[in-house]
Every structure is written in C-alpha cells, then in structure tokens.
Write a structure and sequence with these properties.
The strands form two sheets. Strands 1, 2, 3, 4 and 5 form a five-stranded antiparallel sheet that branches. The protein has helices at residues 2-16, 22-31, 86-93, 114-123, 125-151, 154-169, 178-185, 189-201; strands spanning 33-37, 42-44, 52-66, 72-78, 100-113, 173-175, 205-208, 211-214. Helices cover 50% and strands 26% of the residues. Helix 4 crosses helix 5 and helix 7 crosses helix 8 (189-201). The chain has 215 residues and is of the alpha+beta class. It binds a DNA duplex (13 and 13 nucleotides) through residues 153-154, 177-179, 187-194, 196-197, 207-210.
Amino acid sequence: METRDLLIREKLNNVYSEIFEKELIEEIIKVCYFKKIKSGELLINIGDELTHIPLLTEGVVKIIRMENDGDEIALYYLEPGDTCAISFANCIKKERSIFKGIVEKDVEALFIPVNNIDEWIVKYKSWRYYIIDSYHFRLIEMVESIDNLAFLQMNDRLMKYLNGKVKMNNTKDLEITHQDIARDLNTSRVVVSRIIKQLHDDNKIYSTRNKVRVL
DNA sequence: ACATTAAGTGATT
DNA sequence: AATCACTTAATGT
C-alpha cells in the first residue's frame, strides 16, 4: 500500500501541488484510485451514471456532444490539471452524463468518489475554487465553440481545429484522416477534403494520406 | 494481385 | 456548404 500512496502522491504533486492545500492532497491520496486509460477508449458515454470524477494527470480527453442519429461535434478537450467540470453537477444531483468523453491521448487520472466532491466543497477553499474555475473555464470554451460555429466559415473552423491539435500534441505533424476531422466538426468528408486541398495549395498546410502538417 | 480504405472531383441543390 | 455518384490513389494481406 505504501507504493500506491507514493505513486499517487507523485502524480498529484506533478500537476496539483500548486492548486490544492496539503490536507486536501492527503485526503485525495486516501480516497482516490489511479487508472490509466488507453487512447481510443471511452471515458464516459452519454447516459452513463457518474460515480467518480477524474483529475487528469496525463493525456487528453475529447468531449463530444452527440445527437441520437449519430450527429456529433467536438466541444473541448481535457488536459492534465483539468477535470470534467460539467460532471460535478451531474454527480451531485445523481444525474446522467450529457456528454461523451473519448481518450485522445493515453490518459492517467485520479478518480475521486462522488461523496467527497460534495464534502470537500465546504471543507476546502482550494477545492471550491478549483471547481468554480473549472466551470468558468469550460463555459468560456463552450462560448468559444458557439462563436466558431455561428460566425466562422468552414475553412476557418478547420484551420482553428488543426491549430488546436498542434498545440495539444506539441507537434505540427498530425496523424488524422479527413473523415475524422469531418466528424469532429460535424460536416461531411467531401467538404473537409476540398478545404484541406485548398489550404494545401495555399501553403498553409502540407497534407498526404492520413497526415496533415501545419506550416 | 486483390480488396479495402482514404482522398479527389464534377454536377446539382 | 451539403450530397450524390463516381474515380483515383494509397495501403494492407
């Protein structure tokens, strides 16, 4: 059990030592469980009941909103230091998730049981602020998404999407298909292909099968 | 060599 | 910007 504590303590200190007070960190170590999740796996699906909340220490999760008939759109991404803020309300009110979360880059996370989430909001200032900040940040990202959706043309949306990927992956070489992009932006593959070709010709990107390099 | 999957294209709405 | 109906190119087995 010692090694478990050490591992979790290290993971926490890497990302959360500045955010949480000491006593809270100790409590987290006591109640959380640590889990790795591989890229491509589902972290949470629409309709799932939430029993735990993940604090990411590694990797990226893509949060998607989905319509029944398969229509979907990528809303935002969770990175180390982030948590799925929206799930707090669900958690506390024992409702089901309205989003889908897919692991984009291998994830390591500490899972906190629902009960503690509630309790700590009263008990720890740092936790309270963390939750509020999370909400705030997600709201901003959501508004950004809406802005993009409402005001930008497809080619600008696509370019923003690619730039976002570059930032997250720390590389300008992306491994992605036109179909994948189309799915995230909720458009058709043909439209993406045409825009990609145009961006390629304008020397904004360099693209080959399964690959896009942002220039 | 053949099948599968990704990407390109013209015409139409 | 979306959809259809192809064609062409890249790839896996």
